[in-house]
């Protein structure tokens, strides 16, 4: 009888550990459900969309990582010099500002803000933009994205 309780106890601990692992890994390991994507220089980037105030404020905060060839596209109704910061972002990014499909500015290898940093740096573009694409640091160089480059989007509406 005592052995049965030990076996059940071990199984319960394993199940709880698996549940905790899946919950904490959920946002980071599952493929993007969105069909939105960007095309640049013959390469495809799978996109998460931030189209409302709540998702734009959350952005990539609290994520542990971002899969290769993926990113987050911030969609705005009008062009402006929107500011971006790296508060609670856990990995460096390239921030690509676009006026329509044309890249107007890139902030490369932007580092996460320090945890104790009250006022982290705010990154704004040189020219008004209505899209902002955040990708892993180094992606802009890897995909040869420069000011003036064209990035096309699919399924972002």
Structure description:
- This protein is of the alpha+beta class and 157 residues long.
- The protein folds into two domains: 1-30; 33-154, Jelly Rolls, CATH 2.60.120.1140.
- It contains three helices and seven strands.
- It has helices at 2-29, 53-58, 139-142, and strands at residues 37-40, 43-50, 70-80, 93-99, 102-110, 129-136, 152-154.
- It has a seven-stranded mixed sheet.
- The protein is elongated.
What would you call the structural class?
alpha+beta
Mean of residue pLDDT values: 87
Distance between the termini: 61 Å
Q: What is the β-strand count?
A: 7
Numbering strands along the chain, what is their spatial order in the largest sheet? 5-4-6-3-2-1-7
What proportion of the residues is helical, as a percent range?
10-25%
Q: How is this structure best summarized?
A:
Helices cover 24% and strands 32% of the residues. The protein is α+β, with helices and mostly antiparallel strands and 157 residues long.
Topology:
Elements (H helix, E strand, L loop, with lengths): L1 H28 L7 E4 L2 E8 L2 H6 L11 E11 L12 E7 L2 E9 L18 E8 L2 H4 L9 E3 L3
Parallel strand pairs: 2-3
Antiparallel strand pairs: 1-2, 1-7, 3-6, 4-5, 4-6
Comma- or semicolon-separated keywords:
alpha+beta, 3 helices, 7-stranded mixed β-sheet, elongated, Jelly Rolls, 157 residues
